[in-house]
Amino acid sequence: MTHTAASSGPGTGRKLLLIGGGHSHVEVLRRFGRHPVADMALTLLSRDRHTPYSGMLPGYVAGHYRWADVHIDLARLARFAGARFIQDTATGLMLEDRTVRCESGYVLPWDRLSLNIGSTPSLEATGAAEHAVAVKPIHRFNDRWLALLARVREGSRRLRIAVVGGGAGGVELLLAMQYRLRRECHALGQDPDRLAFALFTRGRTILPTHPTGVQRRFLHVLAERGIGLHCGTAVSAVDATGLETEDGRHHRADEVVWVTRAGGPEWLCETGLALDSQGFIKVRESLQTVTDPDVFAAGDIASMVRHPREKAGVVAVRQGPPLAANLRRSLTGRPVRAWRPQRHWLALISTGDRYAVASRGWLGFGGRWLWHCKDWIDRRFMRRYRTRDD
Ligand SMILES: Cc1cc2nc3c(=O)[nH]c(=O)nc-3n(C[C@H](O)[C@H](O)[C@H](O)COP(=O)(O)OP(=O)(O)OC[C@H]3O[C@@H](n4cnc5c(N)ncnc54)[C@H](O)[C@@H]3O)c2cc1C
């Protein structure tokens, strides 16, 4: 980005508080940085300073990208937008007082509020919170991933890695992990077959929201790569030695990665905001919550009442521009506008080895060139949020 910081410094005028540095809020910050609203104090409150771009996460694990390539520095982006950046976690929201409470005890006032906090993995199986690692928060996953890499590099014993969750995230992540870890073994002159991989899903098949042709392709890839597949059985417990499935079987595992369907965080239940059955905030077509027109939500945490959609980064990205526009309209006293999400979009699911499968509606096809398209799209996306000092 080449524009200089916005003039709307913190501490004056109407207060717009953004909670979470997700895919929609980064676009809000970029737009407010380029075209500031006069007499507005903008604050970004986020648990993490570095927010990962989901599309590139499996590529980072596979070793195609560096850590710095796949995340956006929110403190820098906030500076560009003339916003105050607070690294803290929201734990409460008081609609009557127009305040948000943070983990540190800080209380932040707002006139307009927007939530883009993603979804919270439900580590519901006994012992999962203690023994498994979820993909989010990302810094915790990354620490555990780096530790696993080190274990593979330093040891020579057999290691079993299990991924729980048969959606696109789980399948992509597993294939990326296998690709990277086997390459590490090769590079060290070790037998890569000392690493065993397995995928567990309660669904009858993998990738349930994708066409059968795409499911078949990935079933073939998993079989070809010797990955154990356990469909139709939920994981009921995780301990230090592995995991147990609902049919009572115990499966040994040295690392359990949790990528199952997620929900909204507990603290939202206390806020008075209307939530759907999974704990996501119900929003209108304007991205205003159904409860309070001064409170907006976007990305995974938002549940569009009239247009329910799958939770995906691409939806959160597309909500960025209408969210920014409606926040601006709301702050300047103009009527907000309705926005309708697309029914179908192109998903590019990678197989770890610089190959991707395209999935849209009933359509599915694959190729190396598709991975390069994905790479180009993802890198272009990231460039939008790099400030001059990045
Ligand atoms: C391995 C994997 C691969 C995926 N690949 C794709 C893909 O290729 N394409 C795709 O469309 N989707 C993909 N997804 C899904 C995608 O990750 C999510 O749909 C997307 O990240 C949701 O974005 P978001 O903007 O809602 O929130 P997020 O990107 O999750 O961002 C949430 C932000 O809020 C902050 N935050 C959270 N809680 C709080 C709090 N209480 N207080 C303050 N800050 C908070 C976090 O620090 C973070 O900055 C993938 C998912 C996984 C697990």
TrEMBL record:
Keyword entries, A-Z: FAD, Flavoprotein, Oxidoreductase
InterPro entries per UniProt: FAD/NAD-bd_sf, FAD/NAD-binding_dom, NADH-Q_oxidoreductase, Pyridine_nucleo_diS_OxRdtase_N
Domain (FAD/NAD(P)-binding) ranges: 15-320
Protein name: FAD-dependent oxidoreductase
Cofactor list: FAD
Gene3D superfamilies recorded: 3.50.50.100
Taxonomic placement: Bacteria, Pseudomonadati, Pseudomonadota, Gammaproteobacteria, Chromatiales
NCBIfam families associated with the record: Nterm_to_SelD
Organism from which the protein derives: Spiribacter insolitus
Source organism superkingdom: Bacteria
UniProt KW Flavoprotein keyword: yes
Pfam short name (any one): Pyr_redox_2
